[in-house]
Amino acid sequence: MIKRDKIMLTGKKTLALTTILFAGVSAFAMSDMDLVKKVTKAGIKPIPSSKMEILKLVDDPKNPITDRKVELGKKLYFEPRLSKSGLISCNTCHNLAAGGVDGVAAAIGHKWTANPHHLNSPTVYNSVLNKAQFWDGRSPHLEDQAQGPIQAGPEMAAPAKLVVQRVTSMPGYVNEFKNTYGSSVKIDFKLIADTIAVFERTLVTPSSFDDFLNGNLDALTSEQKEGLNLFIDKGCTSCHNDIGLGGTMQAFEVAKKYKFASLGDFKGDKNGMVKTPTLRNIEETAPYFHNGGIWSLSEAVKEMGSVQLGLTISDKDAAKITTFLKTLTGEKPTIIYPILPVSTNKTPKPEFN
Amino acid sequence: MIKRDKIMLTGKKTLALTTILFAGVSAFAMSDMDLVKKVTKAGIKPIPSSKMEILKLVDDPKNPITDRKVELGKKLYFEPRLSKSGLISCNTCHNLAAGGVDGVAAAIGHKWTANPHHLNSPTVYNSVLNKAQFWDGRSPHLEDQAQGPIQAGPEMAAPAKLVVQRVTSMPGYVNEFKNTYGSSVKIDFKLIADTIAVFERTLVTPSSFDDFLNGNLDALTSEQKEGLNLFIDKGCTSCHNDIGLGGTMQAFEVAKKYKFASLGDFKGDKNGMVKTPTLRNIEETAPYFHNGGIWSLSEAVKEMGSVQLGLTISDKDAAKITTFLKTLTGEKPTIIYPILPVSTNKTPKPEFN
Fold it and tell me: Is residue A159 part of a domain?
């Protein structure tokens, strides 16, 4: 057996020969180490392989992760009583069973209201890796982001005061906040959102792509490697880079050129910039784009090539890139479904107005 | 230490003395064994203490429980794509994190439609112990019941054909059905509902009340025992009996006398009979009654006394009975939140009409 990471080849001809000799049936001609270098040069980084390193990556000294915060944050994440109606939780639109999304084009919230700008729910998985939150990047981190949808009229529609009244009416929550933050804790809306954010920080999903970049060069098939190479060659990494393969603000041409540009009225932030969505778990997060206009992943690849890169990507190449994109489907953290605290006579009732 | 199950006392005076001597602060004067006998005579049975016996209790030879069916049924139970919109799962209205219910008066379904008869979602926990399903008892078992809400217009609103198309469009599901039922399996709507029902059969929640009846006479406090005794003396067990403390069809006076009788148009089945809801986990399943008219458990106790038994139950006695009712809050099975199969280009899209 050949130690692949020892092979350092540069010439194209030699590569082709090596491929025939050592890589068997693959038509893709590049050494694995060269591909890793190319990926790295394109600005992509893996999720680290050690749990300690992942923790370091996702932790924030201003709101450090603890086991108790994660457990309490999980309950709050699945808590429908944080919504005005008592029916909608964070998990309703960011379903951890379904790629961290709701699988519909525009988010549906309180009283079955569609997002007024026809915006699609982004995945919560790996959202900690985003440099900004929301499609227009208006929120710097998850602690801030988590406050938004709870209060937004077409989403959970709950005033901050109602949320605090609901939570503090339940001894089960009050005791858990005390156990988590100390007996003199003041349970306010910010702390509730901060605690949810800590849980969300843990939702990182390493995949076979990370295994490959972390040194297991057999973690991808040669077809997947070929797709990855094409993904870089086409220029997709000019926006989809870093650990999240996305998550930074980028100039966004969609409003002008995108096939479904007329769906909704989103124009990006004040400078026409939009958050590039992560490509991690992209296989699970259809429909695609800010307005959920496209359902097919390979069609989305072609559309992005055309709109953002000025390229015509053939069906064949789009299929190859899609083959690579599926290697970004990661392993999800095991989540034990929580048992939520019991309401009391003091718990404010569901409201449907 | 006194072995309580050896004490066999009959005289009231002796009991009172025994209580003072051995039971400490309790004002409740009856030997534990006598109370167990009284409970048994009132027609109440415990959930067995051994897992094998529970399995025997909930299994159905026509649709036997297997680990694979339970695992697949769990996925389907949490599967929002079984609904027309792709947003509502069984768990939406029967939330396993929240006592198996939705915590609102009348169920809210497709397009935010309230149940047209203003009916409250019954808990799925221990529903296998019911002798009939639905408030009007029209369904004989969970396999049949599970077909209802998926198709019902104001609930999940999905025609059976659409459900089958969705499920069979996903190789993840098709493979799991093959692994569960054999490679020649025909995935039809009935089999999907049957598989959900198998998962639901496992949702049994033994509590300290069962521990008490199964011989751990210290499992209840003397206040809880006093409430239990009162629960029987008041006649609550004439309807709330058997293992489920409910679940049989009973004549129902609510339509005539109940305080909130005007809320909705439910009149029971054609004979005016209605399914007595289980009292297990009743602490977690407010609001109460078929139309969710009452939120306070002790108020519900008083209302039932008045409407069904012709009794005025004092606030003090209602509080005592409520203290007992909370012993029916059971231990929930540990549920690992599932990761659902990925949609494909063939999966029928969400429909919002």
Answer: yes
